[in-house]
Design goal:
By secondary structure, the chain is of the alpha/beta class. The protein contains 16 helices and twelve strands.
């Protein structure tokens, strides 16, 4: 890794400060090319007010610069930062000057990739850097910070350690066997370690959804019959007229998604096409999508128009959601209109866990557009509804102990657990030691993949492509 890389590390546009970052063995030379009077005895990691020049000696900016000698730097290499005035021309010219002085343009995430390759971060921490930059909610921020501090990496390392001990015990028995001694595998000791690790991996798997929701937000899907007021609810939650609302059934065709923040938790709220039988091709694709979203929902909002009552179909769908793992809120809307529920409907609604009543638009008994300017409708029940939403969302995201945040982690944890279970069976059945060792090694590799101990260019490429340039 002899290349020296450079990039503008701050967002494009104007700002108080803009930073050009350089990392690699030529950092010091590049610094002295741009700042010829940089004192040789200037202390590492200390800022200095400097005049920055291009390679022709022309002044570009007067600003702070710092030389940070490796390995105690972000990348582990020598790093230089020019903390310039945040104007696009300045930053462009300083970057160009570093390139002319010998640097090459950094790829997205290349600084962090080097930090990983130089052992400054494990892979879960590198991922956390991207998550920290991308976090839009308090919960995503908190989780990224925890992972950046190494909590996930440490707990995976602890399990690797345990499996490695079990492997040592098994291998000791293998060596013994070669000497044709009578051997006895340390069965109980091995089983004890495997049981502990398998339990922990199972816990991580079980809690995966919580971590995913913290990182990506809780998927809230608005469902219900057509014309019930789903888009009106979506707009009310979002606080602006994002979705088209009309009295025509079948208005929403494709789904819409917006992020909403409640009590530090991000909600990804989706408005969908109403569920109904239709011969319209576009609408039927929309309805198909609604069904797919329903299956992926973390939380469902089922909107009911009380002036329409409950259809047989709606009742069946609601009952199905109610008995599923997806928490569901029945939103009885159009409280300003006539109540057309049957006794049976009411009984059914009473049996549900969460029912909220709302009036989201319209004026009582007035559905006409009389040409007057649209009066802001008195919205009712929205606050109670968001309270219920926040309470459920919080329940869906909080978890005990460290959590996985990515599908990549889940895949590896699952695979590791399966290999270790295989090994455990083999131990119990007193199978050949080589056999047991093989599964344990596979399990170790899976766990190693999570922290990046075992990694392929493919995995790294996928992870670092998510980064922005300069990080
Ligand atoms: N009176 C009254 N009308 C409402 C209320 N909420 C929504 N509406 C009206 O009901 C009609 C349908 O609302 P939408 O939000 O488009 O309903 P939707 O469920 O998204 O409908 P589709 O997208 O067609 O499935 C619109 O004319 C809304 O203004 C309410 O609380 N009271
Ligand atoms: Mg709609």
């Amino acid at each position: 890794m002899s290349k020296t890389i450079a990039a503008i590390a701050t967002p494009s546009g104007r700002g108080g400060v803009g930073i050009v970052r350089v990392s690699g063995p030529a950092s010091g030379d590049i610094l002295r090319t741009l700042i010829p009077d940089w004192p040789d005895d200037h202390e590492s990691h200390n800022l200095r007010l400097s005049q920055i020049h291009d390679t022709d000696g022309e002044l570009i900016d007067e600003s702070l610069a710092v030389m940070m000698e490796g390995p105690k730097t972000y990348t582990g290499e020598d790093v230089v930062e020019f903390q310039c005035h945040g104007g696009p021309i300045i930053l462009r010219r300083v970057l160009d000057a570093t390139l002319e002085a010998g640097a090459t343009t950094a790829e997205p995430g290349e600084f962090t990739r080097r930090a990983f390759l130089n052992g400054r971060l494990d892979l879960t921490q590198a991922e956390a850097v991207a998550d920290l930059v991308n976090a839009t909610s308090e919960s995503a921020h908190k989780m990224a910070l925890e992972h950046l501090q190494g909590r996930l990496g440490e707990s995976i390392e602890a399990e690797r350690e345990r499996v490695a001990e079990a492997l040592t015990l098994v291998e000791a028995a293998i060596d013994f066997a070669h000497e044709e001694h009578v051997y006895q595998i340390e069965r109980d000791e091995i089983l004890e370690r495997l049981n502990t690790t398998i339990d922990e991996l199972q816990r991580l798997e079980d809690q995966f959804d919580r971590g995913r929701r913290q990182r990506e937000g809780v998927r809230v899907v608005i469902l219900g019959p057509t014309n019930a007021g789903k888009s009106t609810l979506f707009n009310a939650l979002y606080g602006s007229d994002r979705a088209i609302v009309t009295p025509v059934a079948g208005t929403t065709r494709d789904f819409l998604e917006e992020e909403l923040h409640l009590e530090g938790v991000a909600l990804r709220v989706m408005d969908t096409a109403g569920l109904r039988e239709t011969t319209d091709e576009v609408e039927s694709i929309g309805i198909e999508r609604s069904r797919e979203l329903k299956d992926k929902a973390d939380l469902a909002l089922w909107v009911i128009d009380r002036s329409e009552g409950l259809s047989e179909e709606a009742r069946e769908e609601l009952a199905e959601l109610e008995s599923s793992d997806t928490p569901t809120i029945a939103v009885v809307n159009k409280m300003d209109l006539e109540d057309n529920f049957t006794d049976e409907d009411r009984e059914f609604l009473d049996s549900l866990t969460h029912v909220n009543r709302t009036r989201l638009a319209g004026a009582a008994g007035d559905n006409s557009d009389d040409g007057d300017s649209i009066e802001a409708a008195d919205i009712e029940g929205l606050e109670e509804l968001t309270d219920t939403l926040a309470e459920i969302a919080e329940r869906l995201t909080d978890g005990e102990g460290v959590l996985l945040s990515r599908a990549r982690h889940l895949e590896s944890v699952r695979s590791a657990r399966e290999h270790l279970e295989q090994a455990r069976r083999a131990v119990r059945q007193e199978m050949d030691h080589e056999f047991i060792a093989l599964d344990l090694r596979d399990g170790l590799d899976d766990l190693g993949e999570i922290v990046g101990e075992v990694s392929t260019d493919d995995i790294l490429g996928r992870i670092f492509s998510e980064f922005c340039v300069g990080k």
